[in-house]
Amino acid sequence: MAVVELEIPARSAYLSLVRLVVDAAVGSLAPGLSQARLDDLKIAVTEACSNAIEAHEGNWSEGPVIVRCTIGDDEVRVEVIDRGSGFDPDDVEALPAVTDPRRLRHESGLGIALMRTLADEVSFTPSADGTRVSLVVRRPQSTAG
Amino acid sequence: MELRTEVSEIEGWTVVTVHGEIDVATSPSLRERLIDLVNDGSARLVLDLEAVDFLDSTGLGTIVSILKRARTHGGDLRLVCTEARIRRLFEITGLDNAVPLHASLDDAISGG
User: Does A21 touch chain B (CB under 8 A)?
Assistant: First the structure.
């Protein structure tokens, strides 16, 4: 198991760096993962980091936001940990069906839906100190180990 | 990463070619650029995403916002996008129903 950790100030200018690190770390340490799955993971991590940065804006602090990649034999797990104002993912309004014209009223709120679709597993752990989002992408069995 | 746009006029459509990554950091400048175009009378927009390396939910939100603004001004927004990783985001969120994705600039302009 390998762990790569990045700590960034809670500013959106660092999102590009987060993607570079996730790409390099997961790309080199989990070679069995396809580029498409790695792309999915980078989008999900960007969404989680964007929420974390927004949470810090909510309490006027600059972070840090921690991005921890754990590459195991069976899965890649990326945790995004912030000390922001926190949020309840269950409070996020459900989006109308994709065929519903009202869907166009929703210019935001797509991030959590994307995380849930693009990662194999997502969990949100709010605490008094902030929020931990854990994103898991499973590695193909044939290349694990 | 910087976001770069190029604007050209083709057969009554304003074509905006976007280069770079669209995320929380870069979406505001793209949104502002597109709003300016619509407000200046260019409400028939084609957004060429072929040179976009990354798109997230903020970028999708910007596209929805500009689509509505363009239609309110009597125009429309059409997208050029063939990259599977970008197209997939429109499909997951159902936005491909609202904003058709075209395989080429010619298709987008002709509505094909």
Answer: no
Angle at B84 between CA B83 and CA B85, to 5 degrees: 95
Find the closest chain B residue to A12 by CA distance.
B25
The domains of chain A are located at: 2-143
Domains of chain B (ranges; CATH) run 4-104 (3.30.750.24)
CB contact under 8 Å between B97 and A39, yes or no, is: no
Q: What is the pTM of this model?
A: 0.89
DSSP string, A61-129: ----EEEEEEE-SSEEEEEEEE-SS---GGGSPPPPPTT-GGGGG-SS-HHHHHHHHHSSEEEEEEETT
- The number of C-alpha atoms within 13 Å of B7 and in the hemisphere containing its C-beta is 12
Q: What residues form DSSP beta bridges with B19?
A: B4, B51
Which ipTM score applies to this complex?
0.90
**Are A50 and B68 an interchain contact pair (Cβ–Cβ within 8 Å)?**
no
Could A97 and B24 be called an inter-chain contact, meaning their C-beta atoms sit closer than 8 Å? Answer: no
CB contact under 8 A, B56 and A50: yes
- Provide the CA B80 distance to its chain's centre, in angstroms: 8
Q: Between B54, B60, B68, which is nearest A110 by CB?
A: B60
Q: Which residues pair with B55 in a beta bridge?
A: B22
- CB contact, 8 Å: A94 with chain B? no
Assigned CATH class of A2-143 = alpha beta
B98 and A106 within 8 Å at the Cβ level: the answer is no
* pLDDT tens column, B25-55: 999 999 999 999 999 999 999 999 999 999 9
At residue A32, the pLDDT reads 87
